[in-house]
Amino acid sequence: MAKLQILDHPLIQHKLSLIRQKDKGAKEFRELVEEIAMLMAYEVTRHLPLKEVEIETPVTTATTKMLEGKKLAVVAILRAGLGMVNGFVKLIPAARVGHIGLYRDPDTLEPVEYFSKLPQDVPEREIILIDPMLATGGSASAAISLLKNKGARLIKLVVLVAAPEGVERIQKDHPDIEIYTAALDQGLNDHAYIVPGLGDAGDRFFGTK
Ligand code: URA
């Protein structure tokens, strides 16, 4: 079953409480989302392999550790996922960035791909799929299927706020995926908003409310 990890670092929890507040404007919201994304990037890259390197400090030579150079790709689900990209690439500048756009078919209510641009070597990369809100899980599940169809083998889903319904959907559709979230909220309301949530993440980030 897909493993769920709640990233309970105090800074993440504090900043998440700030962006949940309805009086936070787009400027503050953006800055905080970027900071939270950066902190989450720190947490989800703990497993990255290191190699020993010989370096010269101003004092002596030394054997120290650096990243082995595992290939990563950060893939944002449009549009709200864009808000988390900067935080991730600031910490992982060598990561490639991909984008997946999905809309909900009004008749079937199923997500349909309208855009995707991914690194060519997806099968060789570990994919960090980002979207702030895991609500019903429909978009995230479709994005994971798309990535798997392109050959992705290692995918981590990173969200700010998850609803139990979304987590269950991913665990059912993609039991091999690790899910990282800053919070597991109560559930969804009648409009598929996460409760207590933070509202529409895309609108709040882009100021389009
Ligand atoms: N998408 C959002 O932006 N917010 C929610 O609460 C659910 C889906």
Query: So, CATH architecture?
Result: 3-Layer(aba) Sandwich
Q: Quick one: biggest sheet?
A: 8 strands, mixed
CATH topology: Rossmann fold
Count of runs of 4 or more consecutive helical residues = 6
Strand residues, percent: 25-35%
Q: How many DSSP-defined strands?
A: 12
| CATH class placement | Alpha Beta
Q: Which outline best applies?
A: globular
Computed CA radius of gyration, to the nearest angstrom: 18 Å
The number of domains is 1
Low-confidence stretches: none
Describe the structure.
This protein has 209 residues and is α/β, with parallel strands linked by helices. It has one domain (3-206): 3-Layer(aba) Sandwich (Rossmann fold), CATH 3.40.50. It has 6 helices and 12 strands. Strands 1, 4, 5, 6, 7, 8, 9 and 10 form an 8-stranded mixed β-sheet that branches. It has a two-stranded antiparallel sheet with strand order 2-3. Helix 3 links the parallel strand 4 and strand 5. The protein starts with a strand and ends with a helix. Pfam families: UPRTase. Catalyzes the conversion of uracil and 5-phospho-alpha-D-ribose 1-diphosphate (PRPP) to UMP and diphosphate. Uracil binds at residues 194, 199-201. Pathway: Pyrimidine metabolism; UMP biosynthesis via salvage pathway; UMP from uracil: step 1/1.
Produce a short descriptive summary.
This protein has helices spanning 10-20, 26-44, 82-91, 138-149, 164-173, 201-206; strands at 4-6, 50-56, 61-67, 72-78, 96-104, 111-117, 126-130, 133-134, 154-162, 178-184, 187-188, 194-195.
